[in-house]
UniProtKB/TrEMBL annotation:
<dbReference type="InterPro" id="IPR009057">
    <property type="entry name" value="Homeodomain-like_sf"/>
</dbReference>
<dbReference type="GO" id="GO:0005524">
    <property type="term" value="F:ATP binding"/>
</dbReference>
<dbReference type="GO" id="GO:0006355">
    <property type="term" value="P:regulation of DNA-templated transcription"/>
</dbReference>
<keyword id="KW-0547">Nucleotide-binding</keyword>
<dbReference type="GO" id="GO:0043565">
    <property type="term" value="F:sequence-specific DNA binding"/>
</dbReference>
<feature type="domain" description="Sigma-54 factor interaction">
    <location>
        <begin position="130"/>
        <end position="328"/>
    </location>
</feature>
<keyword id="KW-0067">ATP-binding</keyword>
<dbReference type="Pfam" id="PF02954">
    <property type="entry name" value="HTH_8"/>
</dbReference>
<dbReference type="InterPro" id="IPR002197">
    <property type="entry name" value="HTH_Fis"/>
</dbReference>
<dbReference type="Pfam" id="PF14532">
    <property type="entry name" value="Sigma54_activ_2"/>
</dbReference>
<dbReference type="InterPro" id="IPR027417">
    <property type="entry name" value="P-loop_NTPase"/>
</dbReference>
<dbReference type="InterPro" id="IPR002078">
    <property type="entry name" value="Sigma_54_int"/>
</dbReference>
<protein>
    <submittedName>
        <fullName>Transcriptional regulatory protein ZraR</fullName>
    </submittedName>
</protein>
Length: 428
């Protein structure tokens, strides 16, 4: 330092007083930081020598520790301070390899490769969810492709396990690549937790006026009320910069949600909503999806018929887990019935003759099983409508005592139309 200052062995009192560090200098805003930075200037020398230019340097001082100068408990302590003088550069100007070395570069490259592989895996899963030629698959695919071309709030509505998380990631990375985003389970978030876990996106929005971000919130319809208010405040603060992709599970129990969604969130989820069909309604797509998921083996006809007849109450998550299990169990190139999970291979479709057996003391009662919405089936819609129409005409004719004009009035049609309907029912 003496050579840099161009002074002799003893520092002048004026320079020494400036370089004397007091402990109070390390306290900023009432908090002891333990380090201090000062910029030193040496003015141009007046002798015009070769080293007479104006020079500057940064001096960093760090408190290493302290030792008691006297055994008295209230005595002042003399601090051990390390001072470094030199031409320091900003951290951003230091090459990344100099920070972490060759090993760090290799580990970072490996991590980037794993992240890329993880992203490709989830994108492939999302494409499989959208695969198929059935009408529900085509409608779902059209809505998702449109959502990938625009950037707006998106509401994903479907049963639990329908694959909404994979579709949300696909929509985000396709419509806004490189934009910061965070995925959270909204049902577990109160206002404070939401602040913490959403910080990677919210901090960017606060610090940079042109940054955009996305929050992907699973089970948004079960979000606590205080977290809803905080999220609504953010959406009103950055209406064009903050995007929300929310997943609403249509089979969520109503009692699990403390309050309904607020108006701000309801309006946001209505901007662009995508309804996921049940996997059981995509019977014709399952063979294609299964073949895309398990490429190392083929399915036997017996196994595929079982896959197509199983109702899949766990939706896409159960379907993907079952096929992964089958792929791990098979030793050859063909997946048979015995390679599927026990819950699936033991499934037996309900037949119309199945009954519900109950026993009371020594009396056994066999009653038909209650019909559910999934049991509905008719042979022909046209035939059912024709029979229903004939019954209504017969009831009107009976009520009118055979008077065709009165029967037509009761049916709300013209007399000529009633006559045509009656002529159609007469045998040719």
């Amino acid at each position: 330092m003496r050579s840099w200052l161009r002074v002799g062995e003893d520092l002048p009192d004026a320079i020494a007083s400036l370089l004397t560090i007091d402990r109070a200098m390390f306290t900023i805003g009432g908090r002891f930081r333990g380090h201090l930075t000062r910029r030193l200037h040496r003015p141009r020398a007046s002798d015009g020598g070769p080293d007479s230019e104006h020079r500057t340097a940064m001096a960093h001082f760090v408190v290493l520790g302290s030792c008691p100068a006297t055994p008295a408990p209230d005595a002042e302590r003399s601090h051990l301070i390390l001072g470094c003088l030199g031409d320091f550069i900003a951290d951003t100007e230091i090459p990344w390899e100099d920070w972490f070395g060759d090993r760090g570069v290799r580990e970072a490259a490996k991590l980037d490769e794993e992240l890329a592989r993880f992203r490709d895996h989830h994108q492939r899963r999302a494409q499989l969810i959208l695969a198929g030629t059935s009408s529900p698959a085509r409608r779902l695919r059209a809505r998702v492709e449109l959502a990938c071309r625009i950037r707006c709030h998106v509401g994903l509505v479907g049963p639990a396990g329908c694959g909404a998380a994979e579709i949300a990631a696909l929509i985000h990375h396709t419509s806004a690549p490189g934009e910061p985003w965070v995925c959270l389970d909204a049902s577990l978030m109160d206002a404070e937790l939401l602040e913490v876990y959403a910080a990677p996106v919210i901090a960017e929005l606060r610090e940079h006026g042109d940054t955009t971000g996305t929050l992907c919130l699973d089970r948004l319809d079960e979000m606590p009320v205080d977290a809803q208010r905080r999220l609504s405040e953010w959406m009103e603060t950055w209406p064009q910069r903050l995007r929300v992709i929310g997943t609403l599970h249509e089979d969520s129990p109503a009692e699990s949600a403390p309050v309904p969604l607020g108006d701000v969130l309801v309006d946001a989820m209505a901007v662009f909503s995508i309804v996921f069909p049940k996997l059981s309604s995509r019977h014709d797509d399952l063979e294609l999806i299964a073949a895309g998921m398990v490429r190392s083996a083929r399915f036997s006809r017996d196994a595929m018929e079982l896959i197509q007849s199983y109702p899949w109450p766990g939706e896409w998550d159960e379907f993907a887990a079952a096929l992964q299990f089958a792929g791990e169990m098979v030793s050859g190139d063909r997946i048979a019935r015995e390679h599927l999970p026990l819950a699936i291979r033991s499934f037996r479709p309900r037949s119309p003759g199945d009954g519900q057996v109950s026993m009371h003391e020594s009396e056994i009662t066999i009653a038909p099983l209650p019909r559910s919405a999934r049991d509905f089936q008719i042979d022909s819609l046209d035939e059912a409508l024709r029979q229903f129409e004939s019954e209504l005409i017969a009831q009107a004719m009976t009520a009118a005592g055979g008077n065709k004009a009165e029967a037509a009035r009761r049916l709300g049609i013209s007399r000529s139309r009633l006559l045509r309907k009656l002529a159609e029912e007469l045998p040719s």
